[in-house]
Amino acid sequence: MVTPYPSVNVLGTALEPCSRDPLTGYFRDGHCNTCREDTGSHTVCVIMTAEFLAFSKYVGNDLTTPQPQFQFAGLKPGDSWCLCAARFLQAHDEGCAPLVRLQSTHHDALDIVPLEILELYRAPD
């Protein structure tokens, strides 16, 4: 049985929703919840940009092409999405990280991305 970790954000408060349209999250519950089985750590709630989407496609993760077999319509700039923490850190290192919703970013993201880096990309509340 898959047991989600506590729904706490990087600010130490209750994890807020990231997106229900498109429906995101490891559990497809609209939140960036995680668990031991989530080896990709889909924990960083970001707001997609054209630059980041192009970068992601370039490094082998095409998030724009629909995949109907997975009920995935593809992402576009402005969509919110639970991104893998390591991919976010890679985008930061390459200078193309998207904005982050800290209140919707799971605390476990901090195992991979320091809070100081996440704060650099904090989206307006």
From TrEMBL:
InterPro entries: DUF2237. It holds the Pfam family DUF2237. It comes from the Bacteria. PANTHER family: SLR1628 PROTEIN. This is DUF2237 domain-containing protein.
